[in-house]
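Holo prediction. Input below; ligand is S-adenosylmethionine.
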Amino acid sequence: MSSSDLAVGEVESHYTDMIGQFKQVWSMSGHKSIHAGYHDDHPDSEESAARNMIRELAETAEVDSTDRVLNIGCGAGDAAVWLVRERDAEVVGVDICEPLLDEAREHAFEFEADDQTSFVQDDFHELSSIDEEFDVVWGLESIEHSSDLETAVETVRRVLKDDGVAVFADNFISTSERSGRDQKRIETMNDRLRYNLTEIETIKEELTAGGFSDVEVRDISEYVLPSIKSQYRLSVATLPWYKLMTPLGIANRPKSDLVHGSYHSYKLFKKDVLGYYIVRASA
Ligand SMILES: C[S@@+](CC[C@H](N)C(=O)[O-])C[C@H]1O[C@@H](n2cnc3c(N)ncnc32)[C@H](O)[C@@H]1O
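Structure of the complex:
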């Protein structure tokens, strides 16, 4: 099974420390997503690609105006607002990071989506604040942080209606055959980005063991690669500086983690060791 020692509190601190960095990116990019883009537009931009990813996931779950969606690891609420504005759905967002939830509430208010959204602090392994059932559970780059996938899947099933669906878009390890060097890169990514990356086969097995049926997986790595590559280019330019300055306490630690993580992510994508997948499962 796929449990690790990664503490939820560590993930929370990581995202709290990253807020300044995110705000800088959001102010330049025109969106508040914290996920890779889906590049199928010409010409494309990170902003349209970020929206495309949300659209792809919404189409996979067939979200419509009759649906109540639980967005686990909702971040700053970009997908929640999109689901209200584009699908007229109702959305409850949960996240462990309170500053991101504040951003989400502000974002929903700004785009007049506050009537159909609410945002609460909770851990998706527990969801103790959730006492209703949803049509859709939605996770966009959140379960890559799960320290215990089995419990996360059980919890997701508990809050879904019997005809509900779970959809995830995330990084997964594509193969069980990898070199020692690849494994080391995975461990560096886990360490730097507070991930617990698991194999795509593992999530399929966990969902099936957790009582889900019709588990479908779509490899969308080719559409995500431009996002991964542009992060890599930035990391190549700045990695030597961070390597030198971080031990001296001069460089920003969260930024340094992100740069290291982006570097190894691209290397693993290029070798098809890491991939990006959309997963859909029926309750
Ligand atoms: C890569 S960000 C993605 C945010 C958002 N889904 C988006 O696409 O913009 C991962 C998010 O998952 C949240 N998260 C990680 N582990 C969590 C947990 N155990 N329970 C709830 N939220 C969690 C983080 O705080 C962060 O907001």
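The longest helix spans residues 221-245. That is the main takeaway for now.
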